[in-house]
Write a structure and sequence with these properties.
Elements: E1 5-7, E2 21-24, H1 50-59, E3 63-69, H2 80-95, E4 103-107, H3 123-133, H4 138-141, E5 158-161, H5 164-173, E6 176-179, H6 190-193
Parallel strand pairs: 2-3, 2-5, 3-4, 5-6
Antiparallel strand pairs: 1-4
Length: 204
Amino acid sequence: MDGPVVYARRPFPGGRTDAPIAFLDRDGVLNMSLNGYVNRPEELRLIAGTGAAMRSLRDAGFLLCVVTNQSAIERGHWDDERLHLIHDRLDDLLKHEGAQPDLVLACPHLPWAGCDCRKPAPGMLGFGAHLLRSEDGFEAMRDRWESGLHGRPHPLDVMVGDRRSDVQAGTRYGVRSFWAKRDRGLRAMLSRLLDPNDHGDEVA
């Protein structure tokens, strides 16, 4: 598998060059982290306020793109079909608040594989921006991964994660990047994300 696993339940027309994107890490930011992996759909539990915060971002004009490292796939714990089931549950839990992500990208590679998509590399962010903003439309582009194929950052784009690698990925892609406290959730970060004068957090 060359690039990230692509998940989207709804066709997306693309071409939204005017819309900022909120790139969101998954475990510890949207759902409660576990010691290890979220291995089954029923293990995924949203952090309180996640749906409302994602809906607030959407209402403010953001597209929602989840970017998550999931090396359990190449470790042989489970396959991308299981990952899709987990993301079906994420989508279902967010549906009643109109806060489902537009796109979920998951890097399946091992940390030492040297891929361009695993955070702290910025590949998933650039690829997500390309898919969501391409004039060719999302469906035409969704299965094409090319190393270094990046959509351009929007001045209001944000990256939110609970690990140094998340913030580094956002910084390397060139967007405002925020370090969330694990399992505190997106709600605690919302006012900062919506403030265009907040330039995010720095990491070494």
